[in-house]
Structure formats: structure tokens, C-alpha cells
Amino acid sequence: MKALSQLLSAIPVIEVIGSDDKQITDVVSDSRRVTTGSLFVAVRGTQVDGHTFIPLLQYSGVAAIVCEELPEFLETSITYIRVANSAVALGHLASEWYDNPSRQLKLVGVTGTNGKTTTATLIYEMARLMGYKAGLLSTVCNYIDTEAVPTSQTTPDPLTINALLRRMVDNGCLYASMEVSSHAAHQHRIAGLHFTGGIFTNLTRDHLDYHKTVEAYLQAKKSFFDDLPSTAFALTNADDKTGQVMLQNTLAKKYTYSLRTQADFVGRVIESRLDGTSMSFNGREVEVLFTGRFNAYNLTAVYAASVLIGWPVEQVLVAMSRLVPVAGRFQAFHSPKGFTAIVDYAHTPDAVVNVLQAIREVVGTRGSIITVVGAGGNRDKGKRPIMAKEAALRSDRLILTSDNPRNEEPADIIRDMEEGLDIEGRKKTLSIADRREAIRTAAAIAQPGDVILIAGKGHEDYQEIKGVKHHFDDREVVKEFLL
């Protein structure tokens, strides 16, 4: 338990109605979790406004309610705390409730359209290779040192984040890294966290179903850097046109990384293969087990962050050579028939381009590229024809299929994608709504030396159809058809 007065010291309050001399048993933002002694924070969400539940909690035993607007009827046994923004307040209250665990860790946040998962995961792996206990919050899985904790969101809610960070601290972790999604930044899910550093990977079209415009999407990403403290580092991709925009208003120490120009941290690709790449970081050559320029960017960011965290350069370089790819990110499977299948999470036009360019750099004209790709339902429809167009331009054969159709019909999504194809693109394209059949077809037509790219789902082990998640793992299906 904690004193209400102590919790309120962590947030700016407009007014308090009632006594703050109370003991709080827990902090919740879900009205269904309220019990006797709870502090309920009424947050305005994208689907539900927590304020609508306040009248229902009057006799629930709730001790206090944080809100932006007071209800008409005030129950005398409840303390009401009015604030300007409940979502921001929740972040700070969650941190205070769990004794500010982010201040007891060196926490690095990673934001951007592509590369968040890989970069955040590899920083976590670097810490462990350096001999430290570490934690990770990511799309694929959360980790408390070696303990895997399943995840359902790229960036969880503030209470979940702080509960996990608290467990990391209690388990002896000194370092942590986390993905910071645009949704999380916009919804203030990271409010109250103390970051040692922030990393920007890149920005391309994504999540416009939520943000509506690219500018709003950019500003959501930028807000993460705007809120970094002066003690933190802000590391940005100098080769991305929005890289410097991210740093315009930050108080953090500014650093850049690049593959193409002068920067504080420079990566260079010397030779690329399907099983790895020869790279250099600030002139020091290293063999890494990753392929493609997009991974070279991720690795350069990881190298830079590792140095900025304070790890010795020589040890960092050795550890870089020992890093392994993240599940579902350019994960290669080799068939005894002589072709290779690559499963990748690429689900934006830019990500598809990056992966296909990486494959073409290695394959050249010695083999064909067969791409299997779909688009998610109930998401940004504008990117569908763009994805199909970019995939067709860089593939010898293209198979359009289902991804997570959600509440849309797969055939409708595929038709949207087909709109991006010209006459030449249509000649090389098959449309197969059944994803398993699409992968089987790709394997059936592949010849020795060819590469199949299965894009869009990566690590996901399900397909979401009409609100139901059905087990489906691209990696399992690939293995089934490789023999």
C-alpha cells in the first residue's frame, strides 16, 4: 500500500476534493479491476472513455478517482483528483506506485517505422553478452533477464510497463531496452519513464488508419525525443530525411549514425551474403550474422547505443559478432532442393523494399525471387497497392495472399493490392487467398538458387480472422513444404 498523498506528489493536480490522507491498495485504469482501496484513473482511450464508468464506481469501495472532468454527483467517501490529462497522470502514478523502476535501470527506447524490434532486442542481447542481467519490452516477447513473458502489444500500458520494469530491477537487471510505438507515444503510455537514451530508426508510411496523416505520425515519434531529459542521449539515423527533425526540440545529447555520410557512428557494408555480412563500425571490421542494408542500419544503431551506454569498444565489437537475428526477421530456411525461403515481418512498403533489395544484392541474376505477401485488414488501405507495386518491381514472381484479414474479406484486400500492379506486374502475379496454399505454391515453383520471401507476419504464430486468432506460423508452414 501507499499513501494517496505520496502518489499525488508525482503528478500536477488542478484540484483535490476530499482527503488525501488515505492508504491506496492498488492503482488501476480498468474499472473492472477496482477493489476496496483502489485509486482509479479515468483515461480517455481510443475506444472507451474511462470517465463514463465513474458513476458506476461510486459504491465499489474505490478510495480515489483521478479524472479530467468531475462527475455530477460526488460521493463523500471518495477523493476526487482533477488533472489536465489523465493518461499522463497514469504514467507518473504507475511509476510512483512501483517505486520508479526506470530510474534504477539504464533504459533505452527505440522508435521508428521499421527496425524497432531488432534494434531493441539486440541491445538487450548485447547487455547479456557483456555479462549483465537485462530486460526487454518488445513486439515479439518481453524478457526479465532469461524469463520470457508473453506480450500482446508493442508497448504495453503504463501499469504493465512499470510492473515489468519493477520485476527486472528486483531480479538484478541493470539494463533494459524497449520498443516505443507511435501509438504508445501519442497515448502517453511512456509518461513518467526515465530513459537513459532514445534511438530513431526511420520513418515511412504506416499506421495512418490511426494517425490519419504522415505529419501526425511523425509528431508522435518526435514527442518521445521532446520528452527525453538532458542526461539522456538521443541517437538518430542521419540517412533518414526525418532523422534531424526528431532532434529539433530534445534536451538530450544529440548523436547520429549513418551508412552513407559523415556521422558520429558510421557503419559500412563490405560484403553481403545470405548467411551474414562483413561490416565495419567507425573503421573497425566485424563479421555479423545478418543480411541486408536495413540490418546494417539496425546494427550500426546497436553499436552506437552500446558505446553511448558506456561499454568498452573492444568488448562491443566482439559481442557484435556473436549477435544472432531476431525470430521472424530475415529468418532463412534452406531446402535440400537448393532454394532458400526467408520469413520476415516486413509489412510496410518500405520494409518490403528493404528486404527485397537485400535479397537481390546477394542473389543477383543467379536466381529468381518469389515473393509471398499480403496486407492486414482494418488497417491503412492506402499502403496496399503501394506494397504490391514495390514487391512486383523487385520480384520475378509475386503471390498476393492473406495476412491478418481481421474483419475484412481477404479477396477484397487482395483486390486493393492488385490496383497497384501495371500490365507487367500482373503478368508475374498470382492471387491465392489461402496463405498456406500460397506458400506451398511458391515452394513448388522454386528452382535451385531461387529465394522465396514470405513477408508480413514474421514471428506471429496466428492469423486473425473475424475476431478469432487461428494458429498459423509461416516458419512452420515453410518447413513443411521445403522438403
Overall description:
This protein is an alpha/beta fold and 483 residues long. It is 31% helix and 23% strand. The strands form 5 sheets. It has an 11-stranded mixed β-sheet with strand order 11-10-9-12-8-13-14-15-16-17-18, sandwiched between helices. Strands 19-20-24-21-22-23 form a 6-stranded mixed β-sheet, with helices on both faces. Strands 2-7-6-5-4 form a 5-stranded mixed β-sheet, with helices on one face. The radius of gyration is 24 Å and the shape is globular. It starts with a strand and ends with a helix. Residues 206-211 have low confidence and may be disordered.
Measured as a percent range, the helix fraction is 25-40%
How would you sum up the global shape?
A: globular
Question: Which segments are poorly predicted (pLDDT under 50) over 5 or more consecutive residues?
Answer: 206-211
Give the spatial strand order of the biggest sheet.
Answer: 11-10-9-12-8-13-14-15-16-17-18
CATH-defined topology of the largest domain = UDP-N-acetylmuramoyl-L-alanine:D-glutamate ligase
Largest sheet: 11 strands, mixed
Please give the oligomerization state of what you see: single chain
The overall pLDDT average reads 94
SS summary, helix count: 15
Distance between the termini: 59 Å
Number of beta strands: 26
Radius of gyration: 24 Å
Find the CATH superfamily of the largest domain: Mur-like, catalytic domain
Q: What is the compact description of this entry?
A:
The chain has 15 helices and 26 strands. The chain has 483 residues and is an alpha/beta fold.
